[in-house]
User: Fold this.
Amino acid sequence: MADWRAIAQRDPVAAAREVHRRVAALLPPAQQRACLAAVVDEAPLAAAFAAARTTEPLAGVPYFLKDLFDLAGYPTRAGSSFLADVRPVPTGDAALVQALRAVGAVCAGKTHLHEFAYGVTGENPHYGNCEHPHFPGRTTGGSSSGSAAVVAAGIVPFAIGTDTGGSVRTPAAFCGLYGFRMTPGHAWIADAFPLAPSCDTAGWLTRTPADLLELNGALLGLGTSRREPRGCYLEIGELDSDVAAACRQAAARLCAPADHATHGQLTDAFEGAALAYLVLTSAEAARAHAGWLDTHRAQYSPTVWERIDRGRHWSESESVAAEVHRRFIRHTLTSYFLTFDFLVLPSTPCAALTPAECDQSHRERVLTLSAPASLAGLPVLSVPVPLPSGLTAGLQVIVNSAQSPVIPWALQRR
Assistant:
């Protein structure tokens, strides 16, 4: 971020040219189409760099915006083939874009995503699948796939994503990035195109812990504490053996494994969380898409259409059971945070997937890990975990406040 501030303050035109140079140099043409929904032209981008107030903490730092958020003058497609045709081009900016402008950051464009944000792999039949910039043939993860790609490639120091069921946490783990997920209902997600509002959150991705610390400090402020935070590590789900070993080793720098009683309480609450998440979020998605789901069926990919459509068919007993489970998870974690300051879980059960591995079984394995925090509506810090293969996994550090002092403490221990 410091390098970008220096370039932009010295020569805004050079800063704009550098964004475009990096896009052309660091993403192959097919990946430019897959990852980027729009890049601001050089002249208006240079003007935005010039207008950034040098006294602000992120003055002249460029970023890309997930195409669920409105940016004046650009259509919001949400990774779909038709949303821009049934929704007017925005004339104003999303609340998060305004907040970023207020601290000096410059929006360089918009990124593609898994269609309607309903997937964890980053596949998109309309624009192309986002590939890991350093491991072609493997996915970035999703749904904030384009945002992860432009940060991992080194085009910009941070990008905005969203996280409903792991859409920041999964690409952060797969691409070796740091990430932060906010909370549902916040003003910065309330005006984004929805997937499931009770779980939707804004979030962001960075390449370095220092950049994430700086970004959180500028947007949210950083909490402080006079004592060492207390947490524990919980291993759930079916992890690949190399991921399990690496996550245990990385988590040991933050906390000890959960004691027997805590382990039992948490695993009891988290068992079946993925199914409760699927029921609740698909029902919300079906309501959000009610006006298009039948009339535009042919313009959805079959997989995403089916995920949304099933939300119209859950029985009342299934819906009630899912809501009861959500409340059980929230009650359990509320009790947990009376004693502890954070909870660490693996972010993903595996490293970045190949196209052949992007199936329902892997989706369910990911949701087993991500659904508890999603249903609880809690903020999460994502930190990468290197694997012997050179690929990465990740840890999710679940906290009970976006200003938790655990966040700077954990980042400084990386």
